[in-house]
Amino acid sequence: MPPDAPGGVPDTERAGAVTWTTMGGYGWISFTTDYGTFDGFAAACRGVIARIAPEVRINDITHHVPPADVPRGAAVLAQTAPHLPASVHLAVVDPGVGTQRRGIAVGTPGGVLVGPDNGLLIWAAEALGGIDTVVELANKEWLLGDVSRTFHGRDVFAPAAARLALGAPLSEAGPAVAPATLVRLPDPIVAVGDGWIESEVVTVDRFGNVQLAAGGGTLAGLGPDLVIGGIKARRAQTFAEAQPGEMIVYEDSAGRVAIAVNGGRAVVLLSVRPGDVVRVAER
Question: Where on the tree of life does the source sit, at the highest rank (predicted)?
Answer without folding.
Answer: Bacteria
